[in-house]
Amino acid sequence: MKNKYNLYGLRICSDFDLPEVLGSVAANAGDEGVCDISIERGSAPKDLKNSRVYGGFMHVVKDRCLYRFPDIASFLVEEGTRILVDPCPRVDPTEMRAFLFGSVMGTALHQRGLVPFHVSAVETPRGVVAFTGDAGAGKSTMAGEINHLTGWPIVTDDVAVLREVENEIVLSAGLGRLKLWKDAVLRLELDHRDYDRDSYREDKFHVVSEELFTTDAKPLSFLVMLKWGAGPDIRKLERVDAFAVVMNAIYRPYLLDMFGSRKEATKLCCRVAEHIDVLELFRKADEPLDRTKLNAFIRKFEN
Description:
Blueprint: E1 3-7, E2 10-14, E3 23-24, E4 37-41, E5 52-54, E6 58-61, E7 64-69, E8 73-78, E9 82-87, H1 93-111, E10 115-124, E11 127-132, H2 139-150, E12 154-165, E13 168-172, E14 177-181, H3 182-187, E15 196-197, E16 204-208, E17 218-228, E18 234-236, H4 239-248, H5 254-258, H6 262-275, E19 277-283, H7 291-299
Parallel strand pairs: 2-4, 4-9, 11-17, 17-19
Antiparallel strand pairs: 1-2, 1-3, 5-6, 6-7, 7-8, 8-9, 10-11, 10-12, 12-13, 13-17, 14-16, 15-16, 18-19
């Protein structure tokens, strides 16, 4: 019997245990076969006929994508409804799932015409605040710090799905996993020995905890671009600048042109930029997060 989960507002049926997905569900009578994305164990093809090859590991044809990651697994993603997983012998399951929940799941979401958002986000009394920015900008640390100081639940760390529902912009929850460097783990008074170490970064850890996360879709009210450098602590962006930040937050945007609809994604991002507040938050590089300034920032989102 397949494991069943709720993720990104979708029903996921999987041959594999997915401990990072907190929204597990029990099958109701008569719905055993109901799922939006089926994750299956099987033998993947070595290539796809008439495919385009990118980077030596990504084979693309219409509505199908084959990933071949050496020493990890091969993944065949079909029409946004099926992911075939062919693990390499003796691969660490945690490492395999890291690839599954990265480009592989991102491809499935784009194939479904959804807009995956590359953000960390926290639910506040004034709606969800999502953080975007370049790699290393501190998105995960911000989410963890705010949760630590306020108890507000984390909606996602890394990827969530952006939707418009009844004229409201909502963010559907992602994995219940927070990726933090060791210094951030200690700062949040967590014990790094309780968590899996990142396969490629020795001092980074995957914090999985039901206590930290919510699994529900929540209204998105603020998108905050984290930037290094001098400048005002925070400023509001308008029009073109706000739209650019929203568009740049799309996860794996090159997949839009392969499988998704850039036109529809652009329309949604335009509406997002019009309906939420888009902000820039500046931080000094190589300095710990100033909790005095962070508390002042947090007060903006209290009742």
